[in-house]
Amino acid sequence: MAVPKRRVSKTRAAKRRTHYKVVLAKPVKDKDGSWRLPHYINKFTQTY
After folding, report:
1. What is d(CA 12, CA 14) in angstroms, rounded to the nearest whole number?
2. Alpha-carbon distances of 45 from 5, 12, 34, 35, rounded to whole Å
3. Per residue in 1-48, pLDDT tens?
4. To 10 degrees, the CA torsion angle through 34, 39, 41, 42?
5. Are 31 and 37 in contact (CB under 8 A)?
6. Tens of pLDDT along 30-39?
7. 37: which residues sit within 8 A by CB, 6+ positions away?
8. Separation of alpha carbons 39 and 28, rounded Å
9. Alpha helices of the chain — where are they, by DSSP H?
10. Which of 8, 26, 32, 36 is deepest in the core (most CB within 10 A)?
Protein backbone atom coordinates (compact mmCIF):
# COMPACT_ATOMS: atom_id res chain seq x y z
CA MET A 1 0.00 0.00 0.00
CA ALA A 2 1.38 3.42 -0.93
CA VAL A 3 2.00 5.68 2.04
CA PRO A 4 3.50 9.18 1.82
CA LYS A 5 7.03 9.34 3.21
CA ARG A 6 6.61 12.92 4.42
CA ARG A 7 3.73 15.18 5.29
CA VAL A 8 2.60 17.54 2.51
CA SER A 9 2.92 21.15 3.62
CA LYS A 10 -0.05 23.52 3.66
CA THR A 11 1.51 25.63 0.92
CA ARG A 12 2.15 22.68 -1.39
CA ALA A 13 -1.38 21.34 -0.88
CA ALA A 14 -2.83 24.80 -1.57
CA LYS A 15 -0.79 25.10 -4.78
CA ARG A 16 -2.19 21.79 -5.99
CA ARG A 17 -5.74 22.87 -5.18
CA THR A 18 -5.55 26.15 -7.14
CA HIS A 19 -6.92 24.31 -10.20
CA TYR A 20 -10.10 23.16 -8.38
CA LYS A 21 -12.56 25.84 -9.45
CA VAL A 22 -16.32 26.10 -9.51
CA VAL A 23 -17.47 26.83 -13.04
CA LEU A 24 -20.91 28.38 -13.28
CA ALA A 25 -23.08 27.63 -16.30
CA LYS A 26 -23.45 30.61 -18.61
CA PRO A 27 -26.95 31.30 -19.94
CA VAL A 28 -27.54 31.04 -23.68
CA LYS A 29 -29.94 33.05 -25.81
CA ASP A 30 -32.55 31.13 -27.78
CA LYS A 31 -33.89 32.00 -31.24
CA ASP A 32 -36.97 33.62 -29.68
CA GLY A 33 -34.76 35.95 -27.61
CA SER A 34 -35.29 34.34 -24.20
CA TRP A 35 -32.45 33.22 -21.96
CA ARG A 36 -32.00 29.73 -20.50
CA LEU A 37 -29.27 27.57 -18.99
CA PRO A 38 -27.55 25.11 -21.33
CA HIS A 39 -28.99 21.57 -21.36
CA TYR A 40 -32.34 22.79 -20.01
CA ILE A 41 -35.69 23.01 -21.76
CA ASN A 42 -37.01 26.47 -22.63
CA LYS A 43 -40.11 27.06 -20.49
CA PHE A 44 -41.94 29.05 -23.14
CA THR A 45 -41.24 27.21 -26.40
CA GLN A 46 -40.65 23.75 -24.85
CA THR A 47 -37.53 23.25 -26.99
CA TYR A 48 -34.21 21.87 -25.82
Report:
1. 5
2. 59, 50, 10, 12
3. 889 899 999 999 999 999 998 989 999 998 888 899 999 988 888 887
4. 0
5. no
6. 888 889 999 9
7. 25, 27, 28
8. 10
9. 10-16
10. 36
Measured in degrees and rounded to the nearest 5, phi and psi for residue 12 equal -65, -40
Query: What is the C-alpha separation between 31 and 47, in angstroms, rounded?
Result: 10
Residue 38: alpha-carbon gap to chain centroid? 13
User: How far, in Å, CA of 46 to CA of 43, rounded?
Assistant: 5
Q: Is the pTM of this model over 0.70?
A: no
